[in-house]
Q: What sequence folds into this?
């Protein structure tokens, strides 16, 4: 996103799901070879490569502005798992689940790389992320947030999967730096 074409403000929508969804695990998408891999102790460069590939078009900057040691500590916290969607041998998207609070899982990051959008992978990956989160022991609440800088289909997709908006916050653009 070019700062010249950027909006003056953006809105963050916080959503939650307080019960597991009624849908079952979706079959792997047809066509190309597809796999979902959970990373064990992912290196910072790997996470940031996925993060940039998905988020550059949507002004994801919170992680790229942090020191590498801070990102490493974030990725290796207990209850944190990075999943990569591989399609045709290359990363097509990812999601990151964070069990930071007892009884809660947060879908901290989720998205597809631009080349994978429009192939039906977003619904499959989100269904899989939601079910993976609910399979974790003791989960009573699943949260996610999105904003008006994200893909325009993000919020409706989260709502179709069963997430309910609980709060909206409007912020100036560009957002204030995080400490």
A:
């Amino acid at each position: 996103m070019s700062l010249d074409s950027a909006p003056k403000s953006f809105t963050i929508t916080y959503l939650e799901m307080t019960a597991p969804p009624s849908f079952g695990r979706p079959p792997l998408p047809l066509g190309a070879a597809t796999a979902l891999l959970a990373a064990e102790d992912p290196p910072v460069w790997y996470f940031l490569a996925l993060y940039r590939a998905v988020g550059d078009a949507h002004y994801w900057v919170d992680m790229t502005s942090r020191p590498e040691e801070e990102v490493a500590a974030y990725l290796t916290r207990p209850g944190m798992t990075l999943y990569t969607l591989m399609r045709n041998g290359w990363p097509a998207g990812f999601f990151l689940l964070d069990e930071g609070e007892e009884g809660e899982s947060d879908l901290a990051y989720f998205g597809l790389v631009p080349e994978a959008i429009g192939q039906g992978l977003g619904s499959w990956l989100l269904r899989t992320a939601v079910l993976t989160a609910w399979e974790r022991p003791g989960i009573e609440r699943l949260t996610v947030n999105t904003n008006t800088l994200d893909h325009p289909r993000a919020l409706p997709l989260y709502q179709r999967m069963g997430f309910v908006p609980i709060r909206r916050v409007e912020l100036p653009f560009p957002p204030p730096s995080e400490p």
Remarks:
- The radius of gyration is 16 Å.
